[in-house]
Amino acid sequence: MKNLKKLFFLVLIVLIMAIGPLTAQTTGQAAGEKADKLFQAGKNAIHKKDWNAAVEQWKNFSTLFPQSQWEAEPYYWLAYSLNQAAKEIGSADMQTAMREQAMIKLEMLLKRFKDSNWASDARMLRIEVAENLVKAGKVQYKKYITHGAEAENGSDINVKLVALDALMQMNKDKALPILKKIVKENKDKNIRAKAVFVLSQHDDPSVPPLLGEIARRDQDPYVREQAVFWLGQNGAGLGILLELYSDSLDRKLREKILFAFSQNESELSFRKLLDIAKSDPDLELREKAVFWIGQSADKRAAAALMEMYKANTDAELKRKIIFSLGQLDGDQGMAFLKEIATGNSVDRLKGEAVFWIGQKGGAANADMLKALYDGNENFTVKEKILFSLSQNDSPAALKHLLAIARAEKNAELKKKAIFWIGQSDSDEAAKFLQQLIDQE
Question: What is the SS3 string spanning the chain?
Answer without folding.
Answer: CHHHHHHHHHHHHHHHHHHHHHHHHHHHHHHHHHHHHHHHHHHHHHHCCCHHHHHHHHHHHHHHCCCCCCCCHHHHHHHHHHHHHHHCCCCHHHHHHHHHHHHHHHHHHHHHCCCCCCHHHHHHHHHHHHHHHHHCCCHHHHHHHHHHHCCCCCCCHHHHHHHHHHHHHHCHHHHHHHHHHHHHHCCCHHHHHHHHHHHHCCCCCCHHHHHHHHHHHCCCHHHHHHHHHHHHCCHHHHHHHHHHHHHCCCHHHHHHHHHHHHHCCCHHHHHHHHHHHHHCCCHHHHHHHHHHHHCCCCCCHHHHHHHHHHHCCCHHHHHHHHHHHHHCCCCCCHHHHHHHHHCCCCHHHHHHHHHHHHHHCCHHHHHHHHHHHHCCCCHHHHHHHHHHHHHCCCHHHHHHHHHHHHHCCCHHHHHHHHHHHHCCCCHHHHHHHHHHHHHC
